[in-house]
Amino acid sequence: MSRSPSIPDRPHRDIDSDLPDDERLEALRGHYEDLVDVNDQLSAQLDDAEDRRERLREKVDRVERENETLKSSSLYIATVEDVLEDDQVIVKQHGNNQEVLTDVASRMVDRVEPGDRVAVNDSFAIQTVLDTETDARAQSMEITEKPEVTYADIGGIDEQVREVREAVEQPLTEPEIFNEVGIDPPSGVLLYGPPGTGKTMLAKAVANETDATFIKMAGSELVRKFIGEGSRLVRDLFEMARERQPAIIFIDEIDAIATRRTESKTSGDAEVQRTMMQLLSEMDGFEARGEIRIIAATNRYDMLDRAILRPGRFDRLIEVPEPDRDGREQILGIHTRNMNIAADVDFADLADDTDGYSGADIESLATEAGMFAIRNERDEVRHQDFAEALEKIEDDDSSDVVSSAGYFYQ
Ligand SMILES: Nc1ncnc2c1ncn2[C@@H]1O[C@H](COP(=O)(O)OP(=O)(O)OP(=O)(O)O)[C@@H](O)[C@H]1O
């Protein structure tokens, strides 16, 4: 950065008032010339500063334009294969494995090394260097060695728990039964139903019970990534599961990558389609009796592409509905287990009053009731706290309380 020019000293002359007029006039003239001189220096400095400001403004405009272009255009992922002389590199685009010789902007040259993942634009110019692959993998997957959720934490869906145990747990714990009978266990299990009903809990509980690693990936993560990356992440997901088997792969919001084919052929749709094809091909090449089980979940069953439901894919469908009255009472019991509940709390009554509540809604209700007790400086939660919590939740967002309202899942 250039140093700012120094400000000239303010001219100063002592002019003796006893001097004869002509000498005083001469001194004043001299002083005036000094002032004009300083004024000229300051004007020149001002012109310089304005020039500099203009140049900076142009630079800001240019960076902003570049930024806009970056934001508005699709970028492709590539890996740097080689860095050559004269600021050139060879990159290999993910997805189609095309190798391209491309220039690197001077501002990027020192930051690019072979093996780096980069985002390139339509003309293959490198726009940015991305996180390392391991970071990207870790960011998009949730990996838990042994989730803490157990079947005892899940209320109101006993039949679904039984079905999941049969379809996912048994092939892991007693594979010989399937060998003896001579059938393949279901390849993949699809849990469908409104949000917050315990689908994720079910998948975690199986992993807990079977000492399997739980690997979760959200469908929305797969489509949010850069072009060419969704299918790579699917490959990574299965690779990760193979490295850590026994493992439960849980793909939440599978509808994000497996919606019914639409007429539109935008590049985004094509990308989603590629991601889904990769998932199907991973599943097709999968050993059904192996140590990896796949569970997917959706609350948009109506939107699903039927291709994923074919035999050998997600061929066991389990509906996880909103809890009924008894289910709600059971879930209330589970979520108040560790609370200091007063004798007057009537769970049967609360179950009657929570028609349409999901398990997640009931969990919020219990927490909210606890908050009312704290607000009233009590360590015991009374029926009145639950009643006020119910009222508050309904007031807060009457359209949101019934979490399944507006969702189609059949
Ligand atoms: N059947 C249930 N029994 C006990 N708690 C439940 C039940 N269903 C939901 N919950 C509570 O709600 C929380 C969210 O549930 P979960 O994530 O399993 O729902 P989900 O069906 O996977 O929802 P989404 O479709 O939104 O992903 C759980 O952590 C749990 O506390």
Automatic annotation (TrEMBL):
It is found in: Cytoplasm. Gene3D superfamilies: 1.10.8.60, Nucleic acid-binding proteins (2.40.50.140), P-loop containing nucleotide triphosphate hydrolases (3.40.50.300). InterPro entries: 26S_Proteasome_ATPase, AAA+_ATPase, AAA_lid_3, ATPase_AAA_core, ATPase_AAA_CS, NA-bd_OB-fold, Nucleotidase_PAN, P-loop_NTPase. Residues 185-324 form the AAA+ ATPase domain. Keywords: ATP-binding, Chaperone, Coiled coil, Cytoplasm, Nucleotide-binding, Proteasome. It comes from the Archaea. ATP binds at residues 196-201, 335. Transmembrane segments: none annotated. Its main location: cytoplasm. The keyword Coiled coil applies. Signal peptide: none annotated. Residues 1-21 are annotated as: Disordered. Residues 32-73 form a coiled coil. GO terms for molecular function: ATP binding; ATP hydrolysis activity. One of its GO terms (cellular component) is proteasome-activating nucleotidase complex. One of its GO terms (biological process) is proteasomal protein catabolic process. The keyword ATP-binding applies. Consists of three main regions, an N-terminal coiled-coil domain that may assist in substrate recognition, an interdomain involved in PAN hexamerization, and a C-terminal ATPase domain of the AAA type. NCBIfam families: PRK03992.1, proteasome-activating nucleotidase, PrtsmActNtasePan2. Homohexamer. The hexameric complex has a two-ring architecture resembling a top hat that caps the 20S proteasome core at one or both ends. Upon ATP-binding, the C-terminus of PAN interacts with the alpha-rings of the proteasome core by binding to the intersubunit pockets. ATPase which is responsible for recognizing, binding, unfolding and translocation of substrate proteins into the archaeal 20S proteasome core particle. Is essential for opening the gate of the 20S proteasome via an interaction with its C-terminus, thereby allowing substrate entry and access to the site of proteolysis. Thus, the C-termini of the proteasomal ATPase function like a 'key in a lock' to induce gate opening and therefore regulate proteolysis. This is Proteasome-activating nucleotidase. The gene is pan.
